[in-house]
Fold NAD-dependent epimerase/dehydratase domain-containing protein.
Amino acid sequence: MAEIEHEVIAVTGAAGNLGTKLIAALLESQPSLRVLGLDLIAGKPDDRIEWIECNLADAGDSQWKDAIDRSTGLVHFAAKNPYPEADWDDATVSLDMTLHVMLAAAHSPTMRRVVFATSNHVMGRYKEDGANDAARKMRATDTVGVGTVWYANGVLMDSTIYAVPKFCGERLCKALAAQCARRGGPSFVCVRIGWCQPGDNSALTLNASGTPTLAASDTDAAENEGDADSLRDVALLNQWYRSMWLSNRDFTHIFSRALVAALPAERGGFLLTHGMSANSGMRWDLTESKEVLGYQPKDDVQAELRRAAAR
């Protein structure tokens, strides 16, 4: 099957961490591509990007609607709070954004492929279920376990609220894909992103805090756990979060592939898959990412850590 060709790609949350990285990679590989950057506030000026300041939570905002109606591809990153400590107000706005954007994309006369950035936190409960047993691979089609629970700096963290709109977005994409497969319209790919930190995204800065907003050391976190097993718990947390690392180049690669890869007819215009690097010993199954999208991850968190230790 022929891959999808794009003339115009719209990216929501375009001025954020993930949007900035993907747009740079897309323009480097396809200089003639037109990119529409959708965000509340425009990012850095760039002649190759048409910045569109808009509010995706406002169903009546014609700015983002017009952008979607003249795009062939859409990548949806935008969220009110992109971090796992989001509250219900954040989650409500994030879900509204996704509902508005996906419904508009499904009815766009030009749209060919929609890519939704969902999250590993939709499967977070599996952390408690043999968290680091690599023999028990987690497939994207497994029953969800919405929300991760852990301690960071002595504080109980629970990402369930953050993960709910991600899970709902996945289900929405699947339903819209089924409709579009019958009447015509775009196909949908949902990628559950691992951990792609802002900036350099070094494997060395991944830690048991589980979020870039907290830079807790292993020792501090362990001391604050308050029980005899705290050091072991922190070691397991480190392994859980490090094993979902998604390096910058693997991130841009899998999303680039998600935009263009042809989906087999039996998929019904929909694919839900995982987005992590090729991390040794992880539970996240990448079979469909590789076989359907043609994803070829290059990096391994354990190899990066070994190289750093040898310096």
Notes: Residues 210 and 241 are 6 Å apart (CA to CA). Residues 217-223 have pLDDT under 50 and may be disordered.
